């Protein structure tokens, strides 16, 4: 799907079903949301990837991460798209790897604290839900972007589990990292995401809380599928 000002008029499919998954970094949101969407044949939206792509574009354009006005203007000029696997393109260029560097990760966390940045990206995210049923993940899906989502889930895991997963992810890419350093970075990011004034990461009342510390991907997926089936009025097999 392509994001941008001309794409935001909504789709023809009328009301749809939104699964809104939120939670801290490393809780397994992306993996679970992507797999759930694939299993259901629905759209998948990784909203962190959108913030990351904006951060990359800002770094490349020399726009400072604290220049809220410059960042808001930049959003209007960006041509971003995300494929069903969450791979991101910026002006036709595949930036999926470039948006995962430590530099971009930090910049994304900082720019996402600006109210005007969040406002600028809000409609882009909502437009996707008008195209059909959706599984999306981020920090403010249930609280702000889709407050009327049919199913809201807060995926959590303890810091140790989240750090180990990140460590394994990096190792799979051939990158050596220190576990304590990873834990420190995750804790810092949690703090920034939870204490910013604009749409901070927080739990909301109508969210289902799911601790994934002791679950593997299949376990998380099975639980999410059950929840979707129950909400749709279909009994799980
Ligand atoms: O989920 P992620 O690590 O790819 O997200 C990157 C950054 O974007 C993260 O620091 C928080 C921010 N973010 C956000 O503020 N709101 C969202 N809906 C998704 C991500």
In short:
48% of the residues lie in helices and 14% in strands. The chain has 237 residues and is α/β, with parallel strands linked by helices.
Share in helix: 40-55%
Largest sheet: 5 strands, parallel
Separate helix tally: 9
Question: What ligand species are in this complex?
Answer: 2'-deoxycytidine-5'-monophosphate
Overall CATH class: Alpha Beta
Kindly give the count of domains.
1
Number of strands: 9
Q: What class would the helix/strand composition place it in? A: alpha/beta
- In whole angstroms, the N-to-C terminal distance is 33 Å
Q: What is the average per-residue confidence, as pLDDT, rounded to a whole number?
A: 90
CATH architecture: 3-Layer(aba) Sandwich
Write the layout of secondary structure elements.
Elements: E1 2-3, E2 18-22, H1 29-40, E3 43-46, H2 47-61, H3 68-77, E4 80-82, E5 88-90, E6 93-94, H4 102-111, H5 115-129, E7 134-138, H6 141-145, E8 151-156, H7 159-172, H8 179-195, E9 208-211, H9 217-231
Parallel strand pairs: 2-7, 2-8, 3-7, 8-9
Antiparallel strand pairs: 1-4, 4-5, 5-6
Helix pairs in contact: 1-9, 2-4, 3-5, 7-8
The chain binds 2'-deoxycytidine-5'-monophosphate.
